[in-house]
Amino acid sequence: MSKTHTGHTLQQVLTGVFALLLNLLFPDFIESIRYGVLAIVILVIGMPHGALDHIITYQSFPNQSKRTKRLGFYGYYFLMMTAYGLLWLWFPLGGFLLFLLITIYHFGRADAERFDFDESSKLLLTFTRGITIVGLIVYGSEPAYISRIVEVLTGYNSMALVAYIKPYFWIPLILAAVYPLAYAAVLLFTPNKTPSTLYHIDAIIVPVLFALGDPIFAFSIYFGVWHSYNHAQTMLRYLQKKQHEVSMKWFYQKTMLLSLISYAGLAVLYVITEAFGDMYLLLALLFVLISVLTLPHIFVVEMMYRKFGS
Predict the structure, then answer these.
(1) What are 71-93's pLDDT values in tens digits?
(2) Cβ neighbours of residue 275 under 8 Å, at least 6 residues apart?
(3) How buried is 81 (Cβ within 10 angstroms: 0-12 exposed, 13-18 middle, 19+ buried)?
């Protein structure tokens, strides 16, 4: 039985196909709305899906007192966010590289847990899925644009790392092939495990969406429709196993306060960067904010996976 929610794979694949076709047919329109789509995804499901961490943590340690659980959780979150924020401040390149690594693992892990393969196979799918997604965000259809954001963040130009590779199209082609080839290899060596055909399509459509689509738009679609929604549903299923009555309505009610605090932070960030009139700066600071919030969230999710069967 998978640990990650798998009930809407058909809808996710169809959304991916539609988003890709829309991007290919109307690239200028997609470019004009990409930030709006990203904002909607972050507000509607991105921030809320991480705002349930405290409840997941509390329910994972039922024998501890409420006070102990609260002090432990908020102390943990504060220390992790502070340490990572200081890393960004003192060593931006290190902060960026750490974020790439944890994102590769986090995205890949969430998707690999959909399968009933052995742990070695899932580990392979975890890293190859993550490498394909994160690699194509940086070196996909608009590498110069993303490189400018990376340079604002770190002072380094990501395009300089691959300047010697000619012609350039080999880079996104190789990155797009990493996960589908690993997925095919796992299927080949585990013939007794046959996932749904939808996962075969998923193994192609996600890399193609990132390779050919607008990077901000592709990320928004994946982050909202695949990652965040699946995680929210997985967390609800985990709480159901702990004998709690939960639903998406309950989810939004319980995450509203922390989500509103996050929204306020984003609003302040927007006002500050709007004063400078620099969209690259806004994206860079948003990147840092999301990364600082993501690091402690990843460990909460890992704990949830480990305790899922208990």
Answers:
(1) 999 999 999 999 999 999 899 99
(2) none
(3) middle
